[in-house]
């Protein structure tokens, strides 16, 4: 809301709630409007939550019982030893669930707050352990760790990160106690090994060297020293490298070896080897097993039988054997073969563009150049209704798709949808249907993907939580940007757009930051609009400035005066902000270095301030194609409406009733 409160309310309210600054004296110190008495409050707003130890446990969906056992143990330990959130935050990291487990997965997420849902592969597919040395795709556990750490960036600060498998027991009180004697920087703590990868040779009955790993890492002899994957701990400064560069690093191999290779380049890295703190369970045997010690931090190779010695009061595994272990109702899933992973959230391949044009005529038109082809398409091609040619004219967006420009291939567009709340299920569903139906009408290499950016998950007892979990798991097009458990309702986190697109889709040429109440004509943007746009420095939308809202005295509560006091630059209306990849990446980098201004200011205005310093930034108003619904209603005193047409790229605000005007065949709104 751009309307400021009156002066009396402002002086009585907290500074975070105030929408009007009071200035006195001969000089208006507009930019210095925070008083010292509010300094503590402002500092608190800028600080992310902090914890001593962040515990990340990699898991896969079938392992319901493993998560239950570890969850119960950690809960008992932190309750018995009075461990608070200032000392520990823990999460299970999970990827995309198999279809058969979506209901059970949603039920678990609905009941527990310790699960982090990531749009990555959940587990690797291999027949024997040797196949894990070099894979065709990134190791799922590595990708989970990197993406999770990137999610926490800016929302949670921590001193150390402990990573473990879900078949491990983690003694949190012991870990916190030992950290008092360990370095605070450049720390890599675990059970280290210096070895050559081997694989069992069934023909000879002996292990032999696995050379594929050496080839992948360009290593002739031994590999870098690494901490075994059962569990290891690093300091926050070491983790920052993974946050910044993790997606660029080699990851198609064994996770613990790869992490050791990643970290070896840090000068003066403190390798702290402790085989008594990190080891396999004694009953498992092998070279990494140790007898039970109450001082252990991570004990690997846990199963139901071994959990029966867990002492809930003392938080260790050296107690007497219990016979009262209850099996989890979901345990049967972990024993069953894992179904193939669900397909990515994407429409089924379209039968073709909804236009009929003789191929010989099309190829001849293409040979005549882009403009000639577009002209002939409007004359010769006709719209297809239910697969049958009609007398309707082929829309310009699809003609652009049928007339590829020189060089072939089109721009990659990522649509990042902001502002949706968990209760907006129906409106989100209509937009999703529109995006999927329109996104399937691509030609050549043009493409568009979408993601909804969401705030905190609903509370544990909220009836919306299980629905939210099932929507995340089933559609795989929602990203929760407040993973640290903070009650965050801010859903216009534009600064997170690039990182999300980079993780989900590997990047894009352009990003459209879309309001969840907007309609977007995807084919028009991908095929007709973007090919002619510069790929750097682009900032487009329905551009506004303070003068459009009417200027009066700066002390009167008008939108124009509100923007003038903040020295707001020209800004694109939040209905849809189109930027090139470099602009989105700049805001992401800026946010990683400084706390970006966002309080007491609309998100779209704030974004324009963030990018204002960029050299060679190209501002272009597209108000004829990015506009409001033509109902004559002025938003904030300004009517941004335009008649609906095939050239309407973004229309705001949409309602369920207005979505009934959407034509899925042409991806347009019918006037």
Instruction: Extract low-pLDDT stretches.
Output: 1-7, 15-36, 327-351, 442-446
End-to-end Cα distance: 30 Å
* Shape annotation: globular
CA-atom Rg in angstroms: 28 Å
CATH architecture of the largest domain: Alpha-Beta Complex
Strand content: 15-25%
Side by side, the strands of the main sheet go: 3-2-1-4-9-6-10
CATH class of the largest domain: Alpha Beta
Mean of the pLDDT scores?
82
The CATH topology of the largest domain is given as Spore Coat Polysaccharide Biosynthesis Protein SpsA, Chain A
What kind of oligomer do you see? single chain
Main sheet: strands, sense, barrel: 7 strands, mixed
Secondary-structure-based class equals: alpha/beta
Annotation field: number of helices: 22
Descriptive overview:
The protein has 671 residues and is an alpha/beta fold. Helices cover 30% and strands 20% of the residues. It is built from 22 helices and 29 strands. The strands form eight sheets. Strands 3-2-1-4-9-6-10 form a seven-stranded mixed beta sheet. The protein has a seven-stranded mixed beta sheet with strand order 18-17-16-19-24-21-25. Helix 3 (64-80) links the parallel strand 1 and strand 2 (88-94). Helix 4 (102-111) packs antiparallel against helix 16 (463-475), helix 5 (140-152) crosses helix 8 and helix 12 runs antiparallel to helix 13 (370-380). The longest helix has 17 residues, at 64-80. The radius of gyration is 28 Å and the shape is globular.
Short summary of the structure?
The chain has 671 residues and is α/β, with parallel strands linked by helices. 30% of the residues lie in helices and 20% in strands.
